[in-house]
Specification:
Layout (H helix, E strand, L loop, with lengths): L2 E6 L6 H7 L1 E4 L2 E4 L2 E4 L6 H9 L6 E3 L3 H11 L5 E6 L7 H11 L4 E6 L4 H16 L4 H11 L4 E5 L4 H5 L5 H10 L4 E5 L2 E6 L4 H16 L5 E7 L3 H14 L3 E7 L2 H7 L4 E7 L1
Parallel strand pairs: 1-2, 1-6, 6-7, 11-12
Antiparallel strand pairs: 3-4, 3-5, 8-9, 8-13, 9-10, 11-13
Helix pairs in contact: 3-4, 5-6
Length: 280
């Protein structure tokens, strides 16, 4: 059985890793002042943040058309027996459901959609593990069992400068956003049951980042080997400095740097920072 791996652009997997592991990617899009851009295809993350600063309207995000999924699955059917399609949380986007529906439309290939229940480079942990297993000849059943097991070890926390982006985009309740605004806090957010909710309310950005590190430390002391990622919203220098400090403190953790691209950046805003990890 040959198994193909598909994901969407919000995993923010590098073109090099996609090519090396033969990962196929379907882009989500962002609408800026009436102009539509497919992320990771038509616009870079840094160009997006530059455009948004001068835009009069709040950007809107769009999930991929079902037809794009169906066309890709039909193309893969010529060389593969099955496909695993891994997507951002179904609680914040209809992308996963689009993959499910497209999979029911195509013939000649078995399609298994997987809801990561998260997003960004942490979603990418699932994709990379799946692609490595597929390259070793593992079946979809074996890969999906591993991904299901991974869910108990995946962690991700992020800090935003302005909750208004999440509130306007409908990804955070008005009550949660109001509390954040009134107290002038830098809340730590995370995913629970597929949606974004506050984890803790912290007064300053510095303390919020330290709290995220403390949560990482709990697992770093439990497991011999971990993969972790520092994710930034167009604040690369700060992210690189944080990553260097973390890497020096936790030698058993393999750190990498990633970013919040246009689609996720629309909802988190510039200056957002995230930390995610899983045991190897």
């Amino acid at each position: 059985m040959r198994t193909a791996i598909v994901t969407d652009s919000t995993a923010y997997i590098t073109p090099e890793d996609r090519a090396r592991l033969n990962i196929r990617m379907i882009p989500l899009s962002v609408n800026i002042s009436g102009e539509l851009f497919a992320e990771e295809v038509d616009i870079t993350a840094s160009a997006f943040y530059d455009k948004v600063r001068g835009a009069k309207e709040f950007p809107k995000t769009t999930q991929p058309p079902i037809g794009e999924f169906a066309a890709l699955f039909e193309e893969l059917a010529t060389d593969y027996d099955e496909v695993i399609s891994i997507h951002l949380s179904s609680g914040i986007s209809g992308t996963y459901q689009g993959a499910v529906q497209a999979g029911e439309m195509v013939e000649g290939i078995d399609v298994y959609a997987f809801d990561s229940e998260i997003s960004c480079a942490v979603q990418g942990f699932y994709v990379l593990r799946a692609a490595e297993m597929a390259a070793q000849g593992c079946s979809a059943k074996e890969i999906l069992a591993t991904l299901a097991d991974m869910k108990q070890y995946i962690r991700a926390y992020f800090i935003v400068d302005d909750l208004a982006h999440l509130q306007r985009g409908g990804r955070l309740s008005s009550a949660a956003a109001l509390i954040g605004g009134l107290l002038q806090v830098k809340p730590i957010l995370h995913f629970v049951d597929k949606v974004i909710v506050p984890f803790e309310k912290i007064r300053t950005r510095k303390k919020a980042l330290k709290r995220a590190e403390d949560l990482l430390a709990e697992d770093a002391h439990k497991y011999d080997n971990m993969d972790a990622v520092v994710i930034h919203g167009n604040c690369q220098k700060e992210a690189e400095e944080w990553l260097a400090q973390l890497a020096a403190t936790y030698p058993n953790v393999n750190f990498k740097l990633s970013y919040f691209g246009p689609v996720i950046g629309t909802h988190l805003g510039e200056g957002a920072m995230g930390l995610g990890w899983t045991k190897k």
